[in-house]
Amino acid sequence: MVNLSDRRSITETISAISDPRETAVVLAARAVLRALPLIVDEYDIKKSKGALEFPFKVFSAANITWAVARYPELRGQQRAQVRRIKIFEYGAVSTAISFALAATDRAAGAASFAAGPAAADAASGAIEATRRAFLNDLVAADAALEHDFDCLTNGTLLPRELAGQPLWLGATPNLIPDLFTIAKEELYRILSKRPTWDVWIDWYEARLLGKSSNEKAEIDRIAIAARYPTIGIRYINDEIKDRVDAVSSWSEKLETLKQTRLGAKFVQQGNRLTIDPRGDESDVVVSHDTVMLQLHEGIKRRAREFSEIAKRVDNLIGWQGLGAAAVQFREAVECATEDVPDRIGLVYDSTISLGSFLDLDARLRKSSDRTNADPLDLEVQRAFIDLIRAAAPWLRRFPTARMLDDEAGAFLSRTEHFEAAARIVQIAESTSVILRQDSELLTAVVDAGRRGAFQGEKASARSIWSSKNLVTALAVIFSFETGLINNKAAEQSIIAQNGARLYLSAETEILRLFEDAPEDIRQAMAALIDDLRRQMGGSPTNLPEKPKERFDSLRRLKEGESEGEN
Length: 566
Hints:
The chain has 566 residues and is mostly helical.
């Protein structure tokens, strides 16, 4: 366990962690950020004519150390900027920042065998100076520091993950030092009277609360601040406001996006997204009704019978896919009635997919043109109608299904939105963003939408909202900087990379789906795509070919193909 009162112990603890260079920078950056508001006590920024140079240098230095902590790939790139700032001549906070800059500089050293211990020693100096600044209230300061060390030594968080966490993580609200709170309020009050200083107040507040960040915005902020003293502080702040705030705003906008209940909702499972099939509490109440239990048993029996019957027509012209739809429905309802609320979305999607084939049969019976397909045999039709007539009223007894049926069915879907949604579903499978079984279900809903008629219209609306939910779920992950927070980095890295490939491959379709969204959301979505394009060098790399025409599970089994996980 680290002894915070012993600088050698701090250095040795940092050096023993798997990546001492990253560890040193993040610990130094977080220590400095906690102490930053105390500059109001170190230097009289209220009266001195040139006093704003000091807080500007402090914020600039803190910006660099934190950016390198959050994005360690910037270590070498920002080394020149680190060496540019000299503020060690001031008090305890400035000394801490000087040590933090030294840790960042040494962590970027070419000699990795020497850079680690050197960076650790500089970081221990930053921590020592910060503790000296909080000498009258070390309990909270040490609690936060100890929590940082615990997260890194136990492997709970990677260094870059810890950098994005709230500053006083590990200290309860009433343990945040009064000295910090008072100094921060005073600093904000003083700076807010000066034009354009809100760009630094907002930046610091985001770091304090652990809000999302944007790598490009941090790089731009550092580059603009580096132009001092060639241009004045006010002009620098103006440029930061014009250029950086516009770039960084997309993450704050998109992290507030919510998925709608009108489409399939997505949750993360490992390194992919998967459909969340759950309903709400009212569905649970309905599932325990005696009549529902009895109806469900009959539906399961009819579903098993019809899935066998559907095999006979699945190879006829116009009816390909009916067998798979029957199997999907059978598997969706094959559970205890009290478990239906946990899969109500799957049951609903499989029902409208299957029901669209009954609409097709009705249209064929009314049409005299039988060149493309014939209606179902009467025996098959009777079994089909028997199943749907039993399943539809049973399903609508669940409040979630009834809401989906009423609201999604009433949604007037636009043709261009539907085709955009269909394309996104296709690319989602190609990029391995979603699980194979979820892709099959979404594809079935898209196919149902193309059949038109009553069930097809509901399926069309459902596919549009589902695709928007998929894009939204990825946007929220991106808004947390590739989703590293509170998750395993390797898994999140994969989903972020695959999600980026989807966004760049379906850029036109994504922007079309969100063309009716508020202006700020549309701009944020476009900014996100621009950032992804820059990070991936202009285009999605190694994008798999589009999936070949899908055969349903019955046919694959018949031909001896395996159904292993994609």
